[in-house]
Amino acid sequence: NLAFFNERFIDPNERVLPVEERGLQFGDGVYEMIRLYRGVPFTLQEHLDRLEQSAHSIMLTLPKTVEEIAAIVQAGIAQTKIAEGTVYIQVTRGTAPRNHLFPEEVAANLFIVWKEGVPDLGKQQEVGVVVFTFPDERWHNCYIKSICLLPNVLAKEKAHQRGGHEAIFIRDNEVKEGTSTNLFIVKDGVFKTPIADQSILNGITRQKIIEILKKQDVPVLETRLTMEDIEVADEVIITSTTQEAVPVVQVNDRKVGAGKPGVYFQKLAAWFQKEVDQSCSS
Ligand code: PMP
Q1: Are 139 and 15 part of one and the same domain?
Q2: Which of 88, 142, 156, 186 has the most crowded CB, counting CB atoms within 10 A?
Q3: For ligand 1, which residues put their CB under 6 angstroms from it?
Q4: How many domains does the chain have?
Q5: Ligand 1, atom 9: nearest CA belongs to which residue?
Q6: Same domain, 86 and 196
Q7: Which CATH number do you get for residue 183?
Q8: Do 129 and 92 share a structural domain?
Q9: How many other C-beta atoms are found inside a 10 Å radius of the C-beta of residue 215?
Q10: Same domain flag for 89 and 203
C-alpha cells in the first residue's frame, strides 16, 4: 500500500499532518473513492470531474489540475502494481491555525491512498443483504462528496448493530440513498431510482447503471420513491464504487419480493461486469 501527500509519495503510516488541519478540525474537505480492476481505474475521469465539482461547491481550489491528479493516480498504480483495489483521494482546505474563516494564502492538502484488495461481495451478491431505514439527519447539500460523514457513520453503525448491512436515509417521506450507496428498486420490469438533486450523491455507479440499462432498453426512471414503493417493489438494489451492485432482500422487518436476489439484479450484475471488462482490460 502507498500514499501521496501534496508533492510526494509517502508510506501510508507516515505522520504528515499537524493537528491544526482543516480536514481534521472542521471536516473541511471533499473526497473520491475509485475502484481498480486489473490495475485500471474504472471511470477515473468521472470521479475526478466530480472531485472538481465537489471542490468548487465548497469554494475550494484543487491544488493540482485534474490531469495532474490523474497522472499521480496512475503513477501510484504503476508503483504498487495493485490489480484489484481502491484509490482514495482527499482534498482539504489546508493546514492552518483553527479558525472558521478560510485561511488566506494556504494551499489545499491533497492526500491519495492506494489500497490493495476489495470487499468480497460473493456472499452478499449471492444471498442478498438486510437494510434498515433511518431519518436522514444530514445537511442540505448531500450532492457534495464531503468528508463530513458523521451522520452516515452513525446510521451505518446502528444498522450494523441490528444485524443489517446498510442504513437507508428517509427524508420528507422519501427514500433517498444509503450511507455509502445509491438505491434502485425494480417494479414490473421498470428500474426506479431517486432523482439526483441536492439531497443525494449522484453516484458514479448509479450513473453508469442508468447508462447500461438504457443501452439494454430496460426502462429506468429517476423519480420520487416512498416507503410504499419499497414495500411493493419486486427487487431493491444498492450500488457503489466498492460494492458495485448488491441485492437487498429485507428492508426493516419486511421481505423484499420473494426474499432473495431477483432476476433483474442478476442481469444487471452481468451487464455491469461486462462494462468493467470492456473498460478495464489490461
Ligand atoms: N451515496 C453516498 C452518500 C456515498 O457516500 C456513495 C459512495 N461514496 C454513494 C452514494 C455511491 O457513489 P459511487 O457510486 O460514486 O461510489
Answers
A1: no
A2: 186
A3: 33, 177, 180-182, 201, 203-206, 239-241
A4: 2
A5: 181
A6: no
A7: 3.20.10.10
A8: no
A9: 10
A10: no
pLDDT of residue 281: 87
Does 138 lie in the same domain as 91? no
Residue with cell 444530514: 138
What's the rounded mean pLDDT across residues 29-46?
98
CA of 204 to the centre of ligand 1 (A): 7
From atom 2 of ligand 1, which residue's Cα is the shortest distance away? Answer: 180
pLDDT at residue 66 is higher than 90: yes
Where residue 46 sits, what CATH number does that domain have? Answer: 3.30.470.10
- Per-residue pLDDT tens over the stretch 195-215: 999 999 999 999 999 999 999
Is the pTM higher than 0.80? The answer reads yes
Q: Range of 88's domain? A: 2-116
d(CA 120, CA 122): 6
Annotated catalytic residue: which of 81, 145, 192, 274?
145
Rounded to whole angstroms, what are the CA distances from 97 to 105, 114, 207?
13, 29, 39
Ligand 1 atom closest to the Cα of residue 182 is: 10
Indicate the pairing of strand 220-222 with strand 190-193.
parallel
Q: The complex's ipTM? A: 0.99
Which atom, in ligand 1's list, is nearest to the CA of 241? 16
Query: Any catalytic annotation for residue 145?
Result: yes
